[in-house]
Design a protein that fits this description.
Order of helices and strands: HHHHHHHHHHHEEHEEHHHEEHHHH
Number of helices: 19
Number of strands: 6
Radius of gyration: 25 Å
Low-confidence stretches: 1-34, 75-81
Distance between the termini: 89 Å
Structural class: mainly alpha
Mean pLDDT: 89
Shape: globular
Strand content: under 5%
């Protein structure tokens, strides 16, 4: 009898202990509780006009992102008065990007003012609503409302309810004039993988100006930084997970389509080492009506060399435009030369495959060299500074791309 009573006591104690343990488990928290800086949805200030009266000069400078030239406003149609079609300027990319949307339509990006309009207008396919990640201030709102399920939601359906493009909220939430806040979930995760935290003025831009990929199942935007943020380190990450964006229809090569790795390219550069942030150059402090403010006309520093470069380069600031363009011209010429070799490799490899000249091992090696070469060329080609952010890194990547392409061409020529 005592044994029975003792057994019942132990059983009840276990149940009680389990109940206490279960009760002590924290309940799932909504995003606002995880990050108290996220306002409630009905409190989010998403419209930039709400700040027009408090920060008139900043607001007007932000509205300048609707311009391509110093005083020329774009029309509302893609390309506007400055139709810059990469496929016409660089015929090689139609072959190199064949099998992707970029091989059919590829326009130069316009200012932040057009972010949502241009992503809607492009004919390139969108894997999900996660394509809105860096195009609208409402992305965080969507995540708070719908959770991570929003990533895979139909893009066209989701965007119908989106009103605003990039606004003050993207970088400040409800506190413009006070501090930068990270609203990009992928960058918040990516920051955990960095050895050193970037300057705040760099974080604001690096939220979006990075290389990324979509998880094939969830469609979540992910930054490939697990092994580091260098060209080789990102490649090794993709290789380890067997990742590829598409298979080239001619060669069968599983290729990586790089996005816009401005942050990765800039990291480790001379300016970065001297703790110069992105906004120091692209959004410099300016004086207007005897008032100093930080311009939010996020544009090329070459449009405002005295304000963007003068703080460090002094009287030499005016000469910086010539120096920068000299570097960019050299990188551009290298890009064209490498793309010529990549096109030749694509055509020659295709011919060798069709002629059945390749055994499996040789074909695998050639496709590997093709992947390595095109990835490095693409890393520099799609980075918006045309090599200036980090001249050394850009040249190294292009030289390696050329080396891999030539190695593959030598193999094909000897068949």
């Amino acid at each position: 009898m005592k044994k029975v009573i003792l057994s019942l006591f132990v059983f009840i104690a276990i149940i009680a202990l389990c109940s206490c343990t279960q009760q002590e488990q924290p309940a799932p928290q909504p995003p606002q509780a995880v990050n108290p800086d996220i306002p409630a949805v009905d409190k989010m200030i998403l419209d930039p006009k709400e700040w027009k009266d408090k920060y008139p000069l900043v607001y007007e400078s932000f509205m300048k992102t609707s311009m391509m030239g110093d005083a020329t406003k774009e029309s509302e149609d893609l390309g506007g008065q400055h139709p810059i079609d990469y496929l016409k300027e660089n015929p090689n990319i139609a072959i190199l990007y064949e099998g992707t949307g970029f091989g059919k339509e590829y326009y130069k990006a316009r200012g932040h003012y057009y972010a949502i309009e241009d992503v809607v207008s492009t004919a390139r396919p969108k894997p999900g609503a996660s394509c809105l990640a860096c195009k609208t201030s409402e992305y965080e709102k969507l995540i708070v409302e719908q959770g991570e399920a929003v990533f895979a939601k139909d893009f066209q359906e989701t965007v119908q309810d989106v009103e605003f493009g990039i606004t003050c909220y993207n970088c400040h939430r409800n506190t413009p004039g006070e501090k930068v806040q990270i609203t990009s979930p992928q960058f918040s995760e990516g920051m955990k993988l960095l050895k050193n935290e970037p300057k705040v003025g760099t974080q604001a831009c690096a939220q979006c100006h990075v290389e990324y990929y979509f998880d094939k199942k969830t469609k979540q935007v992910i930054l490939p930084w697990k092994n580091g943020i260098g060209v080789d380190e990102i490649e090794s990450y993709y290789d380890e997970m067997g990742f590829y964006d598409w298979e080239h229809p001619r060669t069968g090569t599983q290729l990586i389509k790089v996005q816009h790795p401005e942050f990765e390219m800039y990291s480790g550069s001379a300016h970065d080492t001297m703790l110069v942030s992105c906004v120091d150059c692209h959004m410099p402090k300016v004086v207007e009506n005897n008032q100093e403010y930080r311009s939010h006309w996020a544009k090329s520093p070459l449009k405002t060399p005295e304000e963007s470069c003068g703080k460090c380069h002094g009287s030499q600031a005016k000469n910086m435009v010539v120096e920068v363009e000299k570097i960019q011209k050299e990188i551009d010429e290298m890009e064209v030369d490498v793309s010529d070799k990549l096109v030749k490799l694509t055509k020659d490899l295709t011919a060798a495959i069709e002629a059945k000249k390749l055994d499996d091992k040789t074909l695998e090696n050639l496709r590997s060299l093709h992947r390595k070469a095109q990835y490095r060329w693409d890393f520099v080609f799609v980075e918006n500074s045309t090599g200036f952010h980090n001249e050394t890194k850009a040249k190294d990547a292009l030289n390696d791309a050329e080396k891999y392409a030539e190695e593959a061409l030598d193999i094909v020529e000897k068949l």
